[in-house]
Amino acid sequence: MVGFCQDDEDEVRYRLQDHVIVGPVILEADDVPDGEECKDNCRKIGAPYYSWRPKEVEISNVVPTDEEEEEEEPERLGKCACISTINEIRLEYDAFSGFIPIPKHKHRRSIYFRAFEI
């Protein structure tokens, strides 16, 4: 079961942290820096859902020196998938998925349920 915030103005309403949306992929892209860029790319092609997961990071057994610890972490690149239909939502740590909302004036239901004037 998944629940979503009722507040239309809430920025995180359509985000699923640590989850992956699985379904038919419209477009895939590698080396995408984060979930926000993934969302923007999928919005441009009209996909209603997106998932971003980081690339696997090689783990080293070498203990870092003090100088190496002070360096900034390198940017983590990942794989972005623009999805047409939700078939499944999976728990996957460090992943980032979400819905791309349709503006209210363009919502599909508004085509069929228009208010009429008397």
Structure report:
With 118 residues, this protein is of the alpha+beta class. It contains three helices and five strands; from the N terminus they run ββαβαββα. It has helices at 35-45, 66-70, 108-112; strands spanning 15-22, 25-32, 49-54, 78-83, 88-99. The chain starts with 14 loop residues before the first strand and ends in a 6-residue tail after the last helix.
Could you give a quick summary of the protein structure above?
The protein is of the alpha+beta class and 118 residues long. It is built from three helices and five strands; from the N terminus they run E-E-H-E-H-E-E-H. It has helices at 35-45, 66-70, 108-112, and strands at 15-22, 25-32, 49-54, 78-83, 88-99.
Give the mean pLDDT: 76
**Strand line-up across the major sheet:** 1-5-3-4-2
Instruction: Tell me about the largest β-sheet.
Output: 5 strands, antiparallel
Number of strands: 5
Name the quaternary structure.
single chain
The general outline is elongated
Helix content: 10-25%
Q: Helix count?
A: 3
- Rounded to the nearest angstrom, the distance between the terminal CA atoms is 42 Å
